[in-house]
Amino acid sequence: MKWRSVELRLLFFHGLLLLVLGGLFSALTIQAFGYFEDEIVRRDLGARADEVWAIGGSILDDPAQLRELLDRRFSPGGENRFIRISVNGSVLYQSAAPADESFDPRDVPLPRAATGMRHVKSLDLLTKVFRADDGRAILIESGQSGRLAEAIRGNLISALLVGLPVMLLAAGVGGYILIRQAWAPLGVMIRAAEAITFNDPHNRLPLSGAGNRLEVLGQALNRMLDRLDSAYQHASRFSADAAHELRTPLSIIRGELEFIAREPGLSSEVRASLASCLDEAVRLGEMAENLLTLSRMDSVWGKHEHARVNLLELAQETLAQLSLLAEEKNVRLHDPQGHAVFVSGDRGRLKQVLVNLIDNAIKYTPEGGHVRVALAVHAARARLTVKDTGVGIPADQLDDIFRRFYRISTGRGITGSGLGLSIARSICQAHGGTLMGRSEGGGGSSFSVELPAER
Questions:
Q1: For residues 206 and 3, what is the distance between their CA atoms, to the nearest angstrom?
Q2: Beta-strand pair 116-120/123-131
Q3: Beta strands 81-87 and 90-94, pairing class
Q4: 441, exposed or middle or buried, with CB in 10 Å at 0-12, 13-18, 19+?
Q5: Which long-range contacts link 419-423 to residues 24+ away (Cβ below 8 Å)?
Q6: Alpha carbons 45 and 39: distance in angstroms, whole number
Q7: Which of 92, 199, 332, 339 is the least buried, fewest Cβ under 10 Å from its Cβ?
Q8: What is the pTM of this model?
Q9: What tens digit of pLDDT does each residue of 37-77 get?
Q10: Beta strands in 317-403 (DSSP E)
Q11: Which helix (H) or strand (E) holds 402?
């Protein structure tokens, strides 16, 4: 279904948006962590350099005492710290190697710039300048191993690489559930729209009551259905009124023509013209009756009765009543094949369907042809098939024969009013069934009626 493809597209773009946002969030988090780390390290190293100057600034000329005080206060080796004091390239104090051996103090070059942060291998180093009382520029370098920060940064990156897919998966599942819940009212509306037929034209789409855009759409569609129903009822009433008003004048015309045709002394040409006019009057009368029948069914018609109907018995009765018409054309009507099949419906209307189908089969079957009726049950559906050996139906007209006023052109010209099959299909639909036609490969045609079978 197309709405499912929309659902998948929404889910795809939702996941893509989350991926982009998650990637940006991860990159910004790593960058912010690096900036925060640099600032913390810079602040700590600067504070340590100030403290080193406060402790050793007055005893720079006593290296032994300077080392003793600084080692005792900062424990550079045990804490993996680096401290160095130099004057004009001469080192006054330098801490010992750290316990974790993350760097070698002897490999750390003297600073080229007077102040600032620098990174030497795995060592973060800050240099500050202090002025002694005698005016000398004292460089104090304070550093610490960067392995801990690198480990924290690595753990952060690993957590983001693992957590981002998990987050995307959880967000995708949650998004799919939310999308399905959001589309659920639309699915209900689609099923309700599919169920609306001419038997229940006043049914409308259900509304969720949530006040969202789907409900606004449902309200707009319901208003459109109201307008369509009103127009349809107006057209149906017009057809019924027109057909009802036409019946009386057509009956009068037919009676007058029949009276005139009985007059003696009429020439053969006049009698032929009267016969042609009488045929047309009869056809127009049948068309008016069919229009009236259709207009009644297109209202909230349904089934006049809900009786139990034996289709086998109904078929036998209909074949017997139409046998005289078949004998006049020398067409053989075979006894119905199959067992008794029962449906619930209006017996009179269902007989009208059979009369129409069998009458058409006789009408379009040449002399010496055959008409057969078969009954069966498939998947709780009763099927009645009327098959003939007549002229058949062109493949390009199979879908058109059920349209109102559509008539098939045969070798004998165009016959009928074009309403019989439309009425028959309407009756089948009113009974919850279908009527389908097809052309047989060896000639002839068959029509199948399917209705819900009674258990």
A1: 18
A2: antiparallel
A3: antiparallel
A4: exposed
A5: 419/287, 419/290, 419/291, 419/294, 420/290, 420/356, 420/359, 420/360, 421/356, 421/360, 422/294, 423/290, 423/293, 423/294, 423/297, 423/352, 423/356
A6: 10
A7: 339
A8: 0.45
A9: 888 888 888 899 899 999 888 888 888 898 889 888 888 87
A10: 332-333, 342-345, 370-378, 381-388
A11: none
Render 61-118 in DSSP notation, one character per residue.
T-HHHHHHHHHHHH-TTTTTEEEEEEETTEEEEE----TT----GGGSPPPSSSSEEE
Each residue of 358-417: pLDDT tens digit? 998 998 899 999 999 999 998 889 999 999 998 888 777 777 787 766 666 554 444 555
331: Cα within 13 Å, side-chain hemisphere? 26
The single residue listed with the structure tokens 């078969």 is 374
Structure letter (DSSP) for residue 396: G
CA atoms within 13 A of residue 223's CA, in its CB half-sphere? 5
- Tens digits of residue pLDDT in 57-66: 888 888 889 8
* Gap between the Cα atoms of 398 and 394, Å rounded: 7
Alpha helices in 262-342 (DSSP H): 268-297, 311-321, 323-328
Token pair 């019946």 in the structure block, residue = 247
Q: With the C-alpha atoms ordered 339, 372, 401, 327, is the resulting torsion angle positive or negative?
A: negative
Contacts of 6 (CB under 8 A, 6+ apart): none
| The length of the chain, given as a count of residues | 455
Helix axes 347-363, 420-430, angle to 10 degrees: 150
pLDDT digits (tens, 9 = 90+) for 125-172: 889 999 888 888 889 999 887 777 777 888 888 888 888 888 888 888
Q: Are 387 and 439 in contact (CB under 8 A)?
A: no
CB 359 within 8 A of CB 322: yes
pLDDT in tens, 319-328: 999 998 899 8
Chain-centroid distance of CA 222 in Å reads 20
Q: 209, 57, 74: which is closest to 134 by C-alpha?
A: 57
Cross-strand partners of 138: 87, 130
Q: What is the SS3 assignment for 317? A: helix
CA distance 407 to 439: 16
Which is nearest to 234 in space by CA: 288, 301, 298? 298
Q: What is the pLDDT of residue 132?
A: 87
The whole-angstrom separation of Cα 392 and Cα 98 is: 103
